[in-house]
Amino acid sequence: MEIDLVKEKIEIEQAFQSMLDSAKYCNKTPENLDRIKKAFDVAFEAHKNVRRKSGEPYIYHPIAVARICTEEIGLGATSIICALLHDTVEDTELNLDDIERMFGKKEAQIIDGLTKISDVVDFNVSIQAENFKKILLTLSEDVRVILIKLADRLHNMRTLGSMSRDKQLKIASETLFLYAPMAHRLGLHGMKTELEDLSLKIQEPEAFEEISSKLEKTQEVRTRFINQFSIPIKKALEENQLKFEVKGRPKSIFSIWNKMNKKQVPFEEVYDLFALRIILDSEPQNEKTDCWRAYSIVTDFYQPNIDRLRDWISVPKANGYESLHTTVMSPTGKWVEVQIRTKRMDEIAEKGFAAHWKYKEGDKESRFDKWITQIRELLENKNADALDLIDDFKLNLYDEEIYVFTPNGDMKNLPSAATALDFAFAVHTELGVNCLGAKVNNKLVPLSYELKSGDQVEILTSANQKPKEDWLNFVKTQKAKTRIKAFLNEEKKELAHDGKSILEKEFNRFKIEYQNISLKELQKYYKVASLTDLYYRIAVKEIDLNHLKAFEIRNGVLLPKRSIRTRFTNYLGQRLTKKDKKESSPNEMLVIGDNMQKLDYQLAHCCNPIPGDEVFGFVTVNEGIKIHKTKCPNAVQLLSNYAYRVIKARWLDEQKIAFLAAIKILGIDDVGIVNTITQIISNELLVNMRSISFDSNDGIFEGMITVFVHDTEHLKNLIKKLEKVNGVTRVERVDK
Ligand code: MN
């Protein structure tokens, strides 16, 4: 094919000119126009002989990105320049020094940031998340980096057609995972919606086509309904001399698809959730009053659902969104969401802050600043897991935020379902660390109490309080998590110090030299990941150093004895490193079959046998051998109907593995009895509890505790002790 280069150049010039014409937010001083033209010339020259996959000259891409920046995000001259140059450093001969020399320091910085963000290489979400973290890091330098990156991604998504299917899928997956949430977080609603729809189109082409064609077919019905519905409202707004525009809000294909999937309902049940938007043209000082006047008019005609009133004008969302939402009943019995906002608010909702954000030094939108500060706080801990980070980031997005108050009436913004403890950390780290409980609206509540909008929260502290491991199970914010983890690590390090001296003494006693080779052996034996871990476990007595006797000591060096090394599995150790890890089967515990072999098996969950119990193996169809107690309620049936599938099993001796057993305790309710019981279990007998629940009814309590024990002897001991507690009337082992 022959290409008319002269004609092509003219078309490119036209595209550039039309981009400039659309740049209504750009301050078009002669100087700015000069710089923009220069950027265009430089980019044109640099990408001269390169074409995109579609065959068109590469320069169309930077021009398109610049156009999105200015037309759809409302950015100014600097961003247009950087958008035009955004791919030059990565893809052409130009380097950052060239950019700095020709355009300036700021421009070079932004392009440096853009160059650092790599495009997807992988479906792997943790790799994507790492990339995301990098993006956030650049954000704290200059938010324009992300805005331009988003424009870049949007244009790539719009022109994905000529890519390979595999590449399309990768880019779409990353877009949904990272860029759409980011656009949302920055308040770029229009861009977020388009990114989602474009991704869906690639990931689920059939569903996308189906929904979009059905939307087209039902368009007329919707328009008619909305027109009918808005007639009285329009009339009254006019009578009140309000300037306005009324729009039926188009629902995005992605959001319909999402709702269909989430609620498992057909299109027909979703598409007609009607929404109406009233956009008022108000003087700045009348914005709020006008919106509420419009609200009053709407609810004069239609009954509102009080629970659905949202006032994001008095308290805007963290991403800057301002609007008044109400849901009202239409005469035909349909709920209709009505969004009321001014032109300025609508612009922010669609384009994000940038349209109203001035880049003058020291003159930044304060709410935006606040958000950037939050991001910086998240990033403070360099070790924070990138996936945690993104979870937290997203947590703030889709679910509604809650607004709670300090005793002085200061407002704090938290993700929904945040707890009293999250609040404490949000106010001050110190407050979180020493948090004992809270008073919410003057009522005493535990740390894990989930806050609701409007709650007034007073934190109670004690200098003796310290963060606990289980706090991590209920806090919601990354800030609280990070601080708690940091504290626990610090504490662990201190304990490890004690553990080390204990070990040194023991080594002395057994005449073992304090050498790496012996320490490595211990680490292997107890299955701990690091020396700190080893010391820590010794300090908190999770590791029994009596086992040292079982080692061979040659020339002051610890050597494993074969028999022990192969049979002993420090199950306890494993469990404690990974708290929520499911109990795996300790395969060295039983011998099975006539030849007493070591085979793979699982302990049956119906009866949870432990060493000492009489047991048998049962060959299941899909799950290999399961070990049941001979007293298991299922045993009779298994033994009589499937005798051919039953095999012998016997426990090995000298086991120190922990097994799960459940104990039921009945007694008379008494202050402190729960405490006494748990004290006995964990302090006196050093038994680890896995779960505990107590119910109290008319002065009688019933408790269920699951504990880790070594064998039946161990368990019997524990039961005997518990029976002796004042107030306890019965203690028994139960199967579950
Ligand atoms: Mn690009």
Tell me the CATH topology of the largest domain.
Hypothetical protein af1432
Tell me the fraction of residues in β-strands, as a range: 15-25%
Helicity level, as a percent range? Answer: 40-55%
Bound molecules: manganese (II) ion
Q: Tell me what the CATH architecture of the largest domain is.
A: Orthogonal Bundle
Strand order of the largest sheet: 1-2-5-4-3
**Tally of distinct domains:** 5
In CATH, what is the homologous superfamily of the largest domain?
Hypothetical protein af1432
- What structural class do you assign from the helix and strand content? alpha+beta
Q: Tell me the radius of gyration.
A: 33 Å
Task: Write a structural description.
The protein has 736 residues and is an alpha+beta fold. The chain has 5 domains: 5-199, Hypothetical protein af1432 (Orthogonal Bundle), CATH 1.10.3210.10; 212-358, Beta Polymerase, domain 2 (2-Layer Sandwich), CATH 3.30.460.10; 486-560, no CATH class; 567-651, no CATH class; 659-734, ACT domain (Alpha-Beta Plaits). It is 48% helix and 16% strand. The protein has 27 helices and 21 strands. A hairpin with a 2-residue loop joins β8 (435-440) and β9. The protein is globular. The model is unreliable at 358-365 and 562-586 (pLDDT under 50). The site of manganese (II) ion has 4 residues, from loops.
